[in-house]
Structures are given as structure tokens and as C-alpha cells.
Design a protein that fits this description.
mainly alpha; CDP-OH_PTrfase_TM_dom; 80% helix; Four Helix Bundle (Hemerythrin (Met), subunit A); transmembrane helix; CDP_ALCOHOL_P_TRANSF_CS; transferase; CDP-OH_P_trans
Length: 202
């Protein structure tokens, strides 16, 4: 819901940094993989109850995710880079609830499973729309240009997801209800994307 206005503010800053990094020979794929590795380090940190460390890993991952796109825009985006970026993003999103499930299985496992289930819904509807839009060779009226693909927005996007991740790292006891509520909002997003995709592609 907030991705587009947030990107309008952040992209000019990231693009300036990205041009500098690209000029120094930094590759977008290297940033993607480094950020992904740091993001995955949040899982053992969460499992061990080191929530501040996990939050740091999550934020570094998101900064790297912004910078890899900026470097790609400066150096010239590639299909391989776009594929790698999106695949790593979705794996990272699922890794965070996994970490909370490992931290306290008795309390967190079921809400974490529900949240991952909801993430599958948002991710699959996101990617299915992008695949059909690409095959049609253009952006349908409801689609947005973003990352390396055309996609449908929704109630829960990257900005909202990261905000929830920050909240649950700061207040870990809130994870169960946060997972249930945000997972429910993700399912609403999935339903609206499916409905819009059916309308646009009929």
C-alpha cells in the first residue's frame, strides 16, 4: 500500500549512492547475495532470542535490497539480477517467521505457519500477475512497474512487511497476534490481486 510513495522518496537517495557504488565496480548481484546472507542470519539470531541482532540483520538486508536495485539501474539491469533479487526477497520474508517459530515453538509455531501460508498467497499472486503481464508485453491498467517486473500493489507490500518485522523484533511477545493479524491482511491482499488479475486478464 505504501511502497510507491516510499519509493518516490527513497529512490533518488538510493540512486545517488548506487551510481557511486557502480562507479567503484560494485556489482548488483554481489549486493543481493550479501544482503540475503545477512538476512538469513536473522533466523539463528531469532531462534536464540537475540532480537536486536535479528533486527540489525533485517535492516541491513533491506538496505542492501534497495542498493542492489540502484546499482543495477546505474550499471544496466539484467534479467538474471532481477530474478535473483526477487527470489532472495521471498525467501527472506519467509525466513523471519521461521526464526520466531524456532524461538518459541509452543507459542509461535502455529502463527508463524499461518503467516508463511499468507506470504505464499501474496507471493504467488504477485508473481503470477507479473508472468502474464510480461507475456502480454505491457503493463495492464492495474499494474505497476517495480523491481524487474510488472506487479499488482495491495494492502500489504514490502513497506508494511518490514514495519511488522521491526515491531515484532522490538516486542517479541507480540509475534503471535501480529502474525495472525498481518497474515489476515496478506490474505485480503491475495484475494484482491486474484480478483483484479481475473478482471484484467479476462
Amino acid at each position: 500500500m505504501f511502497d510507491i510513495p516510499v519509493r518516490r522518496r527513497l529512490d533518488p537517495i538510493l540512486d545517488r549512492i548506487g551510481r557511486g557504488l557502480a562507479g567503484r565496480g560494485v556489482r548488483a548481484d554481489a549486493l543481493t547475495l550479501a544482503g540475503f546472507a545477512v538476512g538469513l542470519a536473522a533466523v539463528p539470531a531469532l531462534a536464540l532470542g537475540a532480537f536486536w541482532t535479528a533486527l540489525g540483520c533485517i535492516l541491513v538486508n533491506r538496505i542492501a535490497d534497495g542498493l542492489d536495485g540502484a546499482v543495477a539501474r546505474a550499471a544496466g539491469p539484467t534479467d538474471r539480477g532481477g530474478f535473483l533479487d526477487i527470489a532472495c526477497d521471498f525467501l527472506f520474508y519467509a525466513a523471519v517467521p521461521l526464526g520466531f517459530a524456532l524461538a518459541d515453538p509452543a507459542v509461535n509455531a502455529l502463527p508463524a505457519a499461518f503467516l508463511i501460508f499468507a506470504f505464499v498467497g501474496t507471493g504467488s499472486s504477485f508473481l503470477a500477475f507479473a508472468a502474464i503481464a510480461a507475456r502480454r508485453g505491457g503493463v495492464p491498467p492495474s499494474g505497476h512497474r517495480g523491481k524487474a517486473i510488472h506487479y499488482l500493489g495491495g494492502l500489504t507490500e514490502g513497506t508494511e512487511t518490514i514495519l511488522v518485522f521491526v515491531i515484532i523484533c522490538l516486542w517479541p511477545a507480540a509475534f503471535p497476534w501480529a502474525a495472525w493479524i498481518f497474515g489476515g491482511l496478506c490474505l485480503i491482499t491475495t484475494a484482491t490481486r486474484i480478483a483484479e488479475g481475473m478482471r484484467v486478464f479476462r
